[in-house]
Structures are given as structure tokens and as C-alpha cells.
């Protein structure tokens, strides 16, 4: 009798798997969009993410404190600073000791830039609040999903424009004096996109979990089901 040789699948290295998951999570938390994705290959691994983001944040604060961001084309400068310094960090593996700081620093820089542009252009504060809330909800949803082992679809990062395209759109609009209507359209678009995708995904997951539980219950024998009920009653 001829037997087929068994193919032994090597187990993944635990350290490599941990590094892979950490990188994937931090890159998801960055919320890079189509521009960062397109330039990632050509820019390579140029700048370390934390120092570059800190320098960009300090530069934006300095411009704000100096009163330079008033009106007109100067309003594109904070966006340009972020793009020039932070975009080249998209290709990094984010495995450094302090690289976990990159997503919160980047989100702080994005939020601060939006606020600075909005105040300079007298954009209604409620509109700025809603825009920041929508982006913040998307960030929270991404973090919560990944901690449950559920990853948002890749197309969502592209459709959500990413931090870089969102800021580029707002910066150009602010420089042209059209920030309020552009911010309103962007806010409505992101609200619909993130809300519908999030609700749909969680409903789909809930249905899949319920179906899996139902299949498991059907596979149980009456004796196993009775033992499970008895155990739960004793614990209660």
C-alpha cells in the first residue's frame, strides 16, 4: 500500500506574528488614505514616524501662536508641513519603542489643523465639532474592531480619503476662501460613509456570531446541553 507523504505546515513564529499584528494595527490607526498609499512605494522608509510627527505638530503650534495663519494662501502651510514631514513615514514598519505614539500624535495634528483652519475662516464651530466627531468615531471604531480581531475593509481607508487627503482638501478650500461649504460637504460624506459601513459591518458580525452559536447548539447532544444548563445554573 502506497501512502502519500504528509505535508507538515510550519507554525508561524510567535514573535514574527506579534510584530506583524502590531504593524498592521498601528498602520490602521494612522488612517492613511489613497495619497499615502500611492506614494508609499516611491518614498520608501525615509523618516522615523514619531520625530517627524512631533516636529510637524510643533511647527503648526508655532505658526498658530505667531498669528501667521490669518487668511489666504498662508492657510495651506500647516497642511503642507504635515504632508512633507509625515507622508514619508508611511512606509515604516512602526516597530520602534515609541512608534505606538504615531497614531495619537497624527490625529492630534489633524484635529489641530482643522480647528486652526476653521477659526481662521470663521467656519461655524458646530460644523467643526461634527467633523472632528465623525473622524474621531471612525478612529474609535477602527481601534475597537482591531482589538476584537476584526479589520475594517481596505477600501474604507481609500473611500475615507485618509488624514492626508482630508487635510489637503480642507487646506486648499481654506486658502481659496471656501472652507465652510467644502467642510460641510466633506462632513456629510464622511458621516454617511463611516456610519453606514460601521453599522453594516457590526450587524453582519452579529448575525454571523448568532449563526455560529446556533450551529454549535445543533451539534450538541441533549446530554451536553443539559450539562451546560446545569453548570450555568450552578454558577448563577
Automatic annotation (TrEMBL):
Family annotation (InterPro entries): DUF5941 (IPR045985)
Membrane-traversing stretches: 50-69, 75-92, 155-176, 182-203
Matching Pfam families: DUF5941
Keywords: Membrane, Transmembrane, Transmembrane helix
Domain DUF5941: 25-209
Composition bias type Acidic residues, residue spans: 216-226
Top-level taxon of the source organism: Bacteria
Region of interest (Disordered), residue spans: 214-236
Name of this protein: DUF5941 domain-containing protein
Amino acid at each position: 500500500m502506497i501512502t502519500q507523504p504528509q505535508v507538515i505546515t510550519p507554525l508561524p513564529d510567535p514573535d514574527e506574528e506579534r510584530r506583524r499584528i502590531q504593524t498592521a494595527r498601528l498602520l490602521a490607526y494612522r488612517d492613511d488614505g489613497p495619497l499615502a498609499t500611492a506614494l508609499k512605494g516611491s518614498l520608501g522608509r525615509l523618516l522615523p514616524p514619531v520625530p517627524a510627527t512631533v516636529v510637524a505638530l510643533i511647527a503648526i503650534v508655532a505658526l498658530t501662536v505667531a498669528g501667521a495663519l490669518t487668511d489666504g494662501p498662508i492657510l495651506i502651510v500647516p497642511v503642507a508641513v504635515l504632508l512633507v514631514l509625515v507622508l514619508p513615514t508611511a512606509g515604516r514598519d512602526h516597530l520602534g519603542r515609541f512608534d505606538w505614539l504615531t497614531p495619537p500624535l497624527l490625529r492630534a495634528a489633524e484635529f489641530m489643523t482643522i480647528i486652526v483652519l476653521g477659526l481662521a475662516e470663521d467656519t461655524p464651530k458646530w460644523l467643526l465639532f461634527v467633523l472632528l466627531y465623525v473622524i474621531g468615531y471612525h478612529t474609535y471604531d477602527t481601534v475597537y474592531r482591531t482589538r476584537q480581531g476584526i479589520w475594517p475593509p481596505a477600501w474604507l481607508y481609500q473611500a475615507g480619503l485618509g488624514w492626508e487627503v482630508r487635510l489637503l482638501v480642507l487646506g486648499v478650500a481654506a486658502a481659496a476662501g471656501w472652507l465652510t461649504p467644502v467642510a460641510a460637504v466633506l462632513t456629510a460624506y464622511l458621516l454617511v460613509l463611516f456610519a453606514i459601513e460601521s453599522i453594516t459591518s457590526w450587524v453582519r458580525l452579529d448575525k454571523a456570531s448568532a449563526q455560529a452559536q446556533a450551529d454549535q447548539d445543533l451539534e450538541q447532544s441533549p446530554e451536553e446541553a443539559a450539562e451546560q444548563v446545569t453548570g450555568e445554573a450552578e454558577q448563577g
